[in-house]
Design goal:
With 71 residues, the protein is an all-alpha fold. The protein has 5 helices and no strands.
Length: 71
């Protein structure tokens, strides 16, 4: 549902679903980028930067292709 909400431009809903995933998978690139994009959409670039700063090292497991598209 995260990506469905994101594709529809429903960023608060997308961020809510992504945040649920981050509780269990804090290194999930897609979820982290969705939360960051939702912050940008809400006019909060500082929060977006904080989320992007939490992205894991791509050489340690790496992002998924979907996560890279949003990064």
């Amino acid at each position: 549902t995260t990506t469905l909400h994101a594709h529809r431009g429903k960023w608060p809903e997308a961020a809510r679903e992504a945040a649920k995933r981050l509780v269990h998978e804090p290194d999930d690139w897609l979820a982290r980028c969705v939360v960051a994009l939702a912050a940008v959409a809400a006019g909060d670039p500082t929060a977006a930067g904080e989320q992007l700063g939490k992205l894991p090292d791509p050489t340690q497991g790496g992002p998924t292709p979907a996560g890279l598209l949003l990064a």
